[in-house]
Design brief:
Elements (H helix, E strand, L loop, with lengths): L12 H52 L7 H4 L1 H4 L4 E6 L8 E6 L9 E4 L4 E3 L1
Antiparallel strand pairs: 1-2, 2-3, 3-4
């Protein structure tokens, strides 16, 4: 009597389903960490751009002896193109101080707002 051997060709449906479930669980655990990582990166990018704007404001003040007339569009045009943060520059009467506020928008909406004052004080609120 001859016994026929059955050759295994591929994976069974159960094996494939188990692999899919495992990959889904791993992705579900990794996705929140990934999005938090991306948000932190975008916050740091905004912070770096705000520091560059503050440096440009200091250069402007050294040439003009006040912050009066300074605008974000003139000093840091790349900030106007930032889709994740809207930047507002406020120069109070007297033109000797300023405040930069970066408000989150787009995919960053709902995260903290960055405030930077002329004395170098920065805060995420």
């Amino acid at each position: 009597m001859q016994v026929m051997s059955r050759k295994s060709r591929g994976f069974t449906l159960i094996e494939v389903m188990i692999v899919v479930v495992i990959i889904g669980l791993l992705a579900a655990m990794a996705y929140p960490s990934y999005t938090a990582y991306v948000e932190r990166g975008l916050q740091r990018e905004a912070q770096g751009q705000i520091v560059e704007l503050a440096s440009a404001l200091e250069r402007y003040r050294s040439k003009n002896f006040s912050y009066g007339g300074a605008t974000v569009a003139a000093l840091a045009p790349e900030l106007n193109a930032n889709v994740n943060y809207g930047v507002q520059l406020t120069i109070p009467a007297g033109n000797q101080t300023y405040r930069i506020v970066a408000t989150p928008r787009g995919r960053m909406a709902g995260t903290d707002t960055l405030t930077w004052d002329s004395d170098g004080t920065a805060s995420w609120e």
